Structures are given as structure tokens and as C-alpha cells.
């Protein structure tokens, strides 16, 4: 296969030479495109993203909502590809959604713990009571 003619009159590609040249240009563009895609994939690998389905009960301590609001805001700032959806449920409905994989994280007060789920305490709430026998005064307070 002859790719070009060279001589005193100059340089000229043959039809085969022109076809090989075009194929080389296409190959070079494909390699550059592959390198760009690989770089993009590496960048995505270093950024966390996805959808987290969060389930809460409607009555949580104010400090918990404040901490949750701050954590969600910092998550969005650090990883803009993370998206949260928040659903308010009763503890029983929440457990059903967690077991059926309709929710990823549940936060609430639970009386029982299904064996399929992992539980972590988010906070400890204490309740104390005091009474004065002489006045009959009775106080109950949560900490």
C-alpha cells in the first residue's frame, strides 16, 4: 500500500494515505475523548452523591432539629450531589418503611427493634420527677 508520493515536485498523499491520515485523526480524537471521560469518572469517584431518604417522627427535641438542619446544610455544601428527602411518620410506619427499603434512615423513639435493622442512639433523653410531701407539689422535667 502506497501512502504518499514524494519527490522534487513536493509531497502528495495517495487516496490510501488520505484514508490512513483521517483514521489517525479519528483515533487521536477518540483517545482524547477517552482521557476526558476517564478524568470525569475519577472526579465523580471523589465526590459523594446520591439520594438519602430520611424518615422522622414529628416530635423531636429542638436541639435535634437544630443539629439536623446544620448537618444537612453542611452536607449540601460539601457534597452538592447528595439529595435528601424527609418524610414524617409514626414510629410503626417508619419501621415498616425501613424494613421494606422505602426509607434509608429513620429517627424516632422505638419500643422494639426488628432484627433486620441496625440501631444507633442519636441522643439520650432523661426524665426526672420530684415531689414535696409538705406541699404536695410535684414536678416532672425532661433533660
How are the elements arranged and paired?
Blueprint (H helix, E strand, L loop, with lengths): L3 E4 L2 E4 L1 H32 L2 E8 L5 H17 L2 E8 L2 H9 L5 E3 L19 E6 L4 E6 L1
Parallel strand pairs: 3-4, 3-5
Antiparallel strand pairs: 1-2, 6-7
Q: Uncertain runs with pLDDT below 50, 5 residues or more?
A: none
Kindly name the structural category.
alpha/beta
Q: Tell me the strand percentage band.
A: 25-35%
Please report the total strand number as a whole number: 7
Overall pLDDT level: 83
Helix content: 40-55%
Please tell me how large the radius of gyration is. 33 Å
**Biggest beta-sheet profile:** 3 strands, parallel
Q: Count the helices. How many?
A: 3
Run of helices and strands:
EEHEHEHEEE
Give the distance, in angstroms, between the N- and C-terminal Cα atoms: 89 Å
Widest sheet: strand ordering: 4-3-5
Plain-language structure description:
The protein is built from 3 helices and 7 strands; from the N terminus they run ββαβαβαβββ. It has helices at 15-46, 62-78, 91-99; strands at 4-7, 10-13, 49-56, 81-88, 105-107, 127-132, 137-142. A 3-stranded parallel sheet has the order 4-3-5, sandwiched between helices. The chain has a two-stranded antiparallel sheet with strand order 1-2. The longest helix has 32 residues, at 15-46.
